[in-house]
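Reading a protein record of the kind used here takes only a little practice. The record below shows the convention in full:
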Amino acid sequence: MMSSILVALLLLVVFGGVAFLLWWFQGFWGCLVAFVNTLFAASLASVSYGPVVGMLESRMPTYGYLLHFVVLWAIFCVAMAIATELSRLVTRTAVPFDPLVERVGAPIAAVLTGWVAMAFTAASLHTAPVPRDAVGSGMFLGVSPDRGWLAWSIGAATKPPFGGDGGWFSGNRGTVDGATAWYAARRGQLEKEPGLRAAPPADPAPAAAQMPVDALPAAPADGAPVAGPDAPPGAIPAAPQAAPQAAPQAAPPAP
């Protein structure tokens, strides 16, 4: 219960702080630029951090529980800094707007930017080395911004015009429920470790590979006849089974 309250307070601070600061210090144009930069940096970090983590985990396996969270935020910070600097070089002068548009548009753009920042923060908590139950559904006043951002990230990684085979968001992590369950299992495993420096378990095998041995069909013995359309070339065909014969009927009694 306490962890849920702390998470809600953290997200409230991120949302309210970003929205208020932008609305107070920036006009409509500055808020629009900040919204585009935040959306770009958060999307880039969410889609690209997986391959970077995979490369680093092979070199630093004992930092696996930390790398996901650290790399995700590192990419976001670098992308945000570059996008902000480029936007300053390209747009040295703010575009003027009508005073009514300025008064209405600036708070709306500021709120949208704060929501994107808060949703990205909420989704990143799934990758954080925290207890399993610290991250749940409805983490922000009954709303789940983390699931919305995960759906956005998975769609960007798997659907046109920028998506492909899914990359990091494939297999068990190809859906919102699958991604949250995958990270929840990692956090549960971390609770069993003595410290943060521990090698996380490998990805779970597909369901077919986890089938019990006694449930798999037995392979035919050498030289045994094999029948069916899936029989390998050169297999000894099975002898045809004789049709069952009807039982002889008893003769009628003599008159």
Helices lie at 2-25, 28-59, 64-90, 99-124, 145-158, 176-191. The mean pLDDT is 79.
